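User: Sequence in, structure out. Go.
Assistant: Echoing your sequence, followed by the structure tokens.
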Amino acid sequence: MTAAEIYLYLAIISSSLLGIFILLNFFGLDIDDLDVDFGLGDFFSFNSVIAMGAVAGWTGYIGHNLGMQSWVIHAISISIGLVAYVASIYLLDKLKGLESSGTVILDNAIGCTGTVYLGIPEKEKGSGQIQAVVQGRLLTLDAKTTREALETGKSVLIYDVKDNFVYVESFTPDN
């Protein structure tokens, strides 16, 4: 078997596996989510290894068809394959960073501003509701104040969270 044939088989097998893994990802099965730990953390990914094989295989095959010397072909295909590996690890890591659980963490509301939706009695004598954008979502939150009563439509600043209530004070936005 010649080096060109080896590169061709590597390219075809790796490209086929990569295509299968991409199709499986569309249906919700990520091969990298399987519970396999090599102790390499984010530096190992089946998808990245297969991408490296596909890129190195096609590069080596094309290099042989262009009549390049074997040592040059090996050096170039391994180098380009490693670049593909590192690039896919980097891109997959960035894509995983886009994942979101969708859970609103109420403590993230501190510092946000909103509008009183249902009047809030003074000095924690009861509760009302406000509407505020927290984590990119418009939420209606149960609210209390330790100061004067706040009527519907008033702008407020969330300064604390206790027992699933946001604590607010009057706020004048800068225009």
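User: And one key feature?
Assistant: The radius of gyration is 28 Å.
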